[in-house]
């Protein structure tokens, strides 16, 4: 195994577009790490997790009307609103380096410490809770995500709330107008917090970024060397942006097929699970598995393929699902089978129900 270097590459950017920001994060996985990138997006953009369905999570009509960009992260997790007051954190490293973790839970625990240390410098006392949350006094202030390529290089993603327009977030997430009430705003405010809220004053993003940078340097016991993107890297990022992150085939992937008539939504210990399912008689014609759980895309696709043409009986579905669960990031057989049967029931009733969900708000 390689030995982890004591000097990491460091990048700062502000006001990047949704497509360019995501393309840069993914492209940096092809360079020699480790890399720490701290940046902000233009205000505003709505980003969904890798396995989410855009149309179910985001009010696309509102985003079009207000000029809010919509895109999809390469990492898992829920829908988020990003802009000038939210700090994006991208850490690229390789699990093939000695001492570097491989499992998502271990990656979150290891590199989440850098964020905790940075917040501590600001006077904000946070902890890692649930599967991938950083919380302060029970309120979420950051969400963690990760993805990994075949070479063992991973991208650790964080969205840290320096400040947030809660009303705008609730409009961007797909929440029906009748639910946009004081009660919902109160629930969202109670579920999340920001650096500004915790300190009781306005805080510049630059100050927070400096604290997070120093937090990572301290917890990883390394030096950060500022090194901008070279011409070849910029060209590679622009190519990836053009060929992937500006394409509807990526942004709107996992849309249900036109004859998909059953959906289900289920909370699991591994995250939110949302299914789209169509039937041919009493057999599954097609199923799409989405949500904010953490799993390799190949494992999800393999299960979707295995479920096609299966009879809609609990025992048969369980027999197909069970061999796949180990690779699905903590999802359990009973949760998957239950979600499938719920979608089958919806298909039989020729109706669809989909609830709103985002990284920083959960409406029941």
Question: What would your notes on this structure say?
Answer:
It is built from 13 helices and 14 strands. The protein is an alpha+beta fold. Residues 176-180 and 351-357 have low confidence and may be disordered.
Oligomer: single chain
CATH architecture of the largest domain: 2-Layer Sandwich
Global structural class: alpha+beta
What shape does the CA trace take?
globular
Please state the CA-atom Rg, rounded to the nearest Å: 20 Å
Low-pLDDT runs of 5+ residues are: 176-180, 351-357
Assigned CATH superfamily of the largest domain: Bira Bifunctional Protein, Domain 2
Tally the beta strands: 14
N-to-C SSE string, H for helix and E for strand: EHEEHHEEEHEEEEHHHHEHHEEEHHH
Helix content: 25-40%
- Describe the main β-sheet briefly: 8 strands, mixed
Counting structural domains, the number is 2
The overall average pLDDT, rounded, is 89
List its traits.
26% strand, BirA Bifunctional Protein, domain 2, Enolase-like, domain 1, 364 residues, alpha+beta, 14 strands, three-stranded mixed sheet, 2 domains, 13 helices
Brief sketch in words of this structure:
The chain is α+β, with helices and mostly antiparallel strands and 364 residues long. It has 13 helices and 14 strands.
Layout of secondary structure:
Blueprint: E1 7-16, H1 18-27, E2 35-41, E3 45-48, H2 54-57, H3 60-66, E4 69-72, E5 80-82, E6 86-94, H4 104-122, E7 127-129, E8 133-136, E9 139-148, E10 153-161, H5 166-172, H6 182-191, H7 195-199, H8 205-220, E11 223-226, H9 231-245, H10 248-251, E12 262-268, E13 271-280, E14 283-291, H11 297-307, H12 314-321, H13 333-348
Parallel strand pairs: 1-2, 1-11, 3-4
Antiparallel strand pairs: 2-6, 3-5, 6-10, 7-8, 8-9, 9-10, 12-13, 13-14
Helix pairs in contact: 1-9, 4-8, 12-13
């Amino acid at each position: 195994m390689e030995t982890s270097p004591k000097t990491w590459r460091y990048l700062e950017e502000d006001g990047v577009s949704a497509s360019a920001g995501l393309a840069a994060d993914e492209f940096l996985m092809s360079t020699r790490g480790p890399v720490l990138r701290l940046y902000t997006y233009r205000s505003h953009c709505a980003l969904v997790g890798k396995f989410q369905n855009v149309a179910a999570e985001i009010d696309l009509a509102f985003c079009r009307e207000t000029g809010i960009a919509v895109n999809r992260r390469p990492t898992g997790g829920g829908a988020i609103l990003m802009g000038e007051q939210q700090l994006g954190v991208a850490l690229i490293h390789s699990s093939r380096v000695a001492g570097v973790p491989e499992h998502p839970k271990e990656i979150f625990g290891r590199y989440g410490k850098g964020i905790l240390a940075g917040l501590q410098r600001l006077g904000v006392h946070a902890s890692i809770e649930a599967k991938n949350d950083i919380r302060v006094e029970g309120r979420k202030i950051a969400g963690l995500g990760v993805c990994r390529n075949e070479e063992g290089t991973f991208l650790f993603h964080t969205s840290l709330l320096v400040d947030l327009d809660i009303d705008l977030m609730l409009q961007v997430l797909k929440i029906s107008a009748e639910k946009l009430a004081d009660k919902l705003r109160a629930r969202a405010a109670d579920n999340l917090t920001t650096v500004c809220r915790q300190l009781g004053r306005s805080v510049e993003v630059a100050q927070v970024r400096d604290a997070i940078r120093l937090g990572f340097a301290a917890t990883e016991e390394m030096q950060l060397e500022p090194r901008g993107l070279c011409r070849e890297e910029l060209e590679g990022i622009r190519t990836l942006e053009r060929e992937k992150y500006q394409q509807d085939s990526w942004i709107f992937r996992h849309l249900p097929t036109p004859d998909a008539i059953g959906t289900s939504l289920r909370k699991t210990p591994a995250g939110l699970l949302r299914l789209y399912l169509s039937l041919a008689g009493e057999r599954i014609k097609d199923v799409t598995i989405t949500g904010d759980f953490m799993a390799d895309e190949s494992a999800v696709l393999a299960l979707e393929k295995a479920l096609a043409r299966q009879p809609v009986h609990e025992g048969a579905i369980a027999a197909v699902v069970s061999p796949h669960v180990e690779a699905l990031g903590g999802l359990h057989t009973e949760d998957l089978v239950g979600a499938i049967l719920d979608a089958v029931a919806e298909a039989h009733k020729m109706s669809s129900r989909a609830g709103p969900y985002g990284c920083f708000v959960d409406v029941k």
